Amino acid sequence: MFTKYERASILLGIFGPLVAYVSIGISIVSSSWFSWEKNALSDLGHSVKSEVAPIFNLGLFLAGSLMLIYTVLVFRNHAKYSSFFLAISVFSLQLIAVFDEVYGSIHFLVSVAFFLSIGVTSIVYAAEQKSLSPFVAFMIGFTSWIFYFFGFYKLGIAVPETISSLAVASILVTSAIRIYLRNTQTRFNT
């Protein structure tokens, strides 16, 4: 049985990714220069060249913060080993916002750390939960990166960034919903 704070924290596992994608969506819609063929999502967060950088970077940082709270208070009880890797992933997401493209190679490193860590989180979660869906999410993301690097499509890096992060986010949101529903059923059954 969860406390009221833990129940509220479960909802952060749903709203955290939502905050990220809403801020990304607002940033894209507000930036007539953004192109799926040429840009990275992080171009929206460039603090010198992008007028929407505050929206984009705040959204990523806030999403990472909400997900970190969820990870520490709730997800670790559901998936002990996966939560460690998820904490690294969401901290890396926060670092993408803090070290935007102005920081050059530091931004590149934290971005690579984020995308690698969400892949590792998916694999560990699949093994820990003995579930195929996190592995499928990993394969969707991995395939999108392979297709990008080998030029199977002529779109910018924002495409595999979006596909891979959405695939993993869908698994995390689904798990948060399941945890919430399981807790709700347990409360009503006791």
Walk me through this protein's architecture.
The protein has one domain. 76% of the residues lie in helices and 0% in strands. The protein has helices at residues 4-29, 53-78, 80-98, 105-129, 133-149, 158-189. It is globular, with a radius of gyration of 17 Å.
Keywords:
190 residues, mainly alpha, 6 helices, 76% helix, 0% strand
Class by alpha and beta content = mainly alpha
| Residue share in β-strands | under 5%
Mean pLDDT: 94
Biggest sheet character: none
Helix content: over 70%
Give the low-confidence spans.
none
Distance between the termini: 10 Å
Say how many strands there are.
0
Radius of gyration (CA) equals 17 Å
Order of helices and strands: HHHHHH
Q: Indicate how many domains the architecture comprises.
A: 1
The global form is: globular
- Annotation field: number of helices: 6
Structure described in brief:
With 190 residues, this protein is mostly helical. It is 76% helix and 0% strand.
Topology (elements, then pairings):
Blueprint (H helix, E strand, L loop, with lengths): L3 H26 L23 H26 L1 H19 L6 H25 L3 H17 L8 H32 L1
Helix pairs in contact: 1-2, 1-6, 2-3, 3-4, 4-5, 4-6, 5-6
